[in-house]
Amino acid sequence: MHHHSHNRATLGGKLSAVLVAAGSSVGLGNIWRFPYVAGDNGGGVFLLIYIGCVLLLGLPIMLAEFAVGRTTRRNAVGAYHALDRRWSFIGYNSVLAAFLILGFYFVVSGWTAEYTVHSLTGELASLSTAEEYAAQFEGFISNPWRPLLYTLLFILATHAVIALGVQKGIERSAKVLMPLLFIILIALSIHSLLMPGAAEGMRFLFRPDFSKVTASTLLTALGQAFFSLSVGIGTMVTYASYFKPETNLRHTALNVTLLDTLVAVLAGVVIFPAVFTAGIAPSSGPSLVFITLPGIFNGMPLSMVWSTVFFLLLVVAALTSTISLHEVITAYLHEEWHLSRRSAAWLTTLSTAALATLASLSLGLLGGWRICGLTLFDALDFATANILLPLGGLFTCIFVGWKLDPERFREQLSNHGTLRCRIHGLLIFLLRWVCPVILLLVFLDNLGLY
Ligand code: TRP
Known about the structure:
mainly alpha; single chain; globular; 19 helices; Amino acid/polyamine transporter I; binds tryptophan
């Protein structure tokens, strides 16, 4: 029934697992979402809780997903179905969440593409005050057709990568471009640290103020950790199904986690000094990074070059993330519905394009249309990060901790006994007890049940 192995092998190929997994993890979640939710949730204390969530929950659950994917070599639905059909719902949650995430992620990706072009044309550099940047951003996103155009172009780029099987090329360029993004972030953070608001920004990001913790801070940090690492909804199951038998899953997960966290913290170091220098509110929401960055670039020599290169790198980082989300749906449709890969990819592209169109318009033309008081864009962002990802994570750790044969998990961690693995017991303990208990408590806390 599942004889698609020659197709499946295209992704990643001989390239390292770290590269594809990091490509999925490092994206707008680090550079756009992390600063905006950290700014909205108290800064330092959020960062502390976030790092706790990454280590205690994100890392073990990433390993759990790797094990499920590589032991079954199936898409997210097929993988859980093959292990225990009653748990297939985890896979369906994955496909649904990937679809909903793409709905708003494609929109933000479109903005980064638009900002790349406007960096080149000099339009971005023509302003100077925080109010002007904010007004400019509002103008960008509420325009009925322009952001839509960029979003659709970005969707087509994602489709082209998936459909033409050029993942190898993309990942190979990511090998060069990711370190470049990293270097630029370091350069920008040095520039930010020399700004007048640097001390205040650093205090905001690194000095925890425990009086700011609420139930929703915990859930937001947890959701952001899962979102940034790409865990909770089977992306890593899907990717691990393409990993080689000799890939060291523990090293891969550890490297990806550290890299991803480092990029998020660096983004914070770049953004917050500038936020306080320009007098922007840290709680500005999704617009925060887009209204802060132009001011950073404007203060630099060769601002147009910095700004263009940075947004271009952001486009690439976003692309390697949308590819991974697209692949979750495409692999599912291809293997479970028995569509050709081509049709599966088109179905994914067209359906996510429809959702992204509505999400884009919900910030302008369709602004009056609210779901629980939120625009469709905000509702998709909120519901996936704060509900579907933590729920998927909860069921993943319960499944791998309690249902999956521990021997099977150990075989994956140790590559059938060829690697020494001393953390198996600790991981099982985290997956059985620590992760589910924390997730349940945080959920109950948010529902106001105790
Ligand atoms: N982690 C990516 C980012 O930070 C986004 C992403 C890709 C994602 N795949 C995912 C988020 C799966 C949640 C689940 O930009």
